[in-house]
Design a protein that fits this description.
This protein is an alpha/beta fold. The chain contains 8 helices and 14 strands. The strands form 3 sheets. The protein has a 7-stranded mixed sheet with strand order 10-9-8-11-12-13-14, sandwiched between helices. A hairpin with a 2-residue loop joins strand 9 and strand 10. InterPro entries: PRib_PP_synth_CS (IPR000842), Pribosyltran_N (IPR029099), PRTase-like (IPR029057), PRTase_dom (IPR000836), Rib-P_diPkinase (IPR005946). Its EC number is 2.7.6.1. It is an enzyme of class 2 (transferase).
């Protein structure tokens, strides 16, 4: 059983998801007062005592960078208010694509963010579908790395598709696709892409047979949707019966909504780890990750094992 009180707070841009999590958790969100100065500087102040308690701070760190700064300031406020522990709940971990030094004089942004969160006072991180699993090792504090597969696998089963095939839009996602296929008893195909610069796919080739298959593309995020739409085109050209896409994080920048709406994708399913304007495309469906995070937060607070919440 829990031996301390729990408190839930959130950053302003993650409030919609945080309210859902709080509802499933069974607790009201704590209030934060923001003072904003004329030059844009802001100061968050917790509106209740958290002394000796466990703080859960819900925040996805998508751009602009003020979202990350706001999170760091609230962590610092909770630490200075004598919270016993501060669990940062990051449904979407921003800068995760900067997980290695792949060119001269490049930063490792994911490691920098890990250092900042720890320095601010976070004592535990809870996140979902990191762009690279090794980011967990960037932290010197416990990390609960959850997977949206616990949400998506049930949805796929409910579709009851014949000749189901799981596809990865790139070589990097091959392991993820294989794991999904293993749970669903499906085949796997891989789209091999070549890039010359970020967000632009030059060429793409298909590895595997999709004739007459209902294909589901699996990825960790959708940014401009260029890769997914190109993969869908190739899959349909190679004889696929239908193509859907599932991705944990709907970044959906640039012309993503138009790309999806005008693509051969039948449906695109994402979670609400990032706010999604699903009214801009009839093909986008949002599944909430709130029940998953609320359950794991309760388990962590009550010192229970969370292994039952892992599928992939």
């Amino acid at each position: 059983m829990a031996d301390q009180l729990s408190y839930l707070f959130c950053t302003r841009t993650s409030r919609d998801l945080a309210e859902k999590i709080a509802q499933y958790y069974g607790k009201e969100l704590g209030k934060i007062n923001f003072q904003t100065f004329s030059d844009g500087e802001f100061e968050p102040v917790l509106d209740e005592s958290v002394r000796g308690g466990r703080v859960f701070l819900i925040a996805s760190t998508f751009p602009p960078a003020d979202n990350l700064l706001e999170l760091l300031l609230i962590i610092d406020a909770a630490k200075r208010a004598s919270a016993k522990s501060i669990t940062v709940v990051l449904p979407y971990f921003g800068l995760a694509r900067q997980d290695r030094k792949d060119k001269p004089r490049a930063p490792i942004g994911a490691k920098l963010v890990a250092n900042l969160l720890t320095a601010a006072g976070a004592t535990r991180i809870m996140t979902m579908d990191l762009h690279a699993d090794q980011i967990q090792g960037f932290f010197e504090i416990p990390v609960d790395h959850l997977y949206a597969s616990t949400i998506f696998v049930d949805y796929i089963r409910d579709l009851n598709l014949e000749n189901l095939t799981i596809a990865s839009p790139d070589m990097g996602g091959a392991k993820r696709a294989k794991n999904y296929a293993g749970h669903l008893g499906a085949d796997v195909v891989i789209a091999y892409k070549e890039r010359k610069k970020a967000n632009v796919v030059e060429e793409m080739f298909l590895i595997g047979d999709v004739v007459g298959k209902n294909v589901i593309l699996i990825d960790d995020m959708i940014d401009t949707a260029g890769t997914l739409c190109k993969a869908a085109d190739i899959l349909m050209e190679k004889g696929a019966k239908s193509v859907r896409a599932m991705a944990t994080h709907g970044v959906l920048s640039g012309k993503a909504y138009d790309n999806i709406e005008n693509s051969k994708l039948l449906e695109v399913i994402v979670t609400d780890s990032i706010p999604v304007k699903n009214n801009l495309s009839s093909k986008i469906k949002v599944l909430s990750c709130a029940p998953l995070f609320a359950d794991v937060m309760k388990m962590v607070h009550e010192h229970q094992s969370i292994s039952s919440k892992f599928i992939i």
